[in-house]
Design a protein that fits this description.
CATH class of one domain: Alpha Beta
Number of strands: 6
Distance between the termini: 80 Å
CATH topology of one domain: Nuclear Transport Factor 2, Chain: A
CATH superfamily of one domain: Disulphide bond isomerase, DsbC/G, N-terminal
Low-confidence stretches: 17-25
Number of helices: 4
CATH architecture of one domain: Roll
Structural class: alpha+beta
Strand content: 15-25%
Length: 143
Amino acid sequence: MLKKIIIIFLFFLCLFPLENCFAFEEKGKDCSQCHKLNNEEARELLKDIIPNIKILDVRLSPTKGLWEVYLESGGRKGLVYVDFPKKHFISGALISIAEKKNLTQERLTELNKVDVSQIPLEDTLVMGDPKAKIRIVVFDDPD
């Protein structure tokens, strides 16, 4: 009886090859055309796990089959990854083995860049040449 079940299983495995899985982009198929995740849906998925969550952005991750979710919770910003079936999320660093790079840290650095030209300087104490090519901005709390 067990042999028959195994043979039937192998037969069906041949009929429905694994190459048609949800996370593999092949033969011109774009997985993001079928799989969607918006900010509100991401918030609903993660609100019971991450308290006071605010979703800032959702986009495809560098890895196929995952969404990159940029979020804020408790005043801290971070990235998590949600799989296409929306059953699992990954919190942690996504590392490129071939390039030996931390893709999560690179993305967080990109997202958290501050444009220093937008910092108001009208009530500042200027030391040195105010038109210098290189400037250093120091923030201090006198209290």
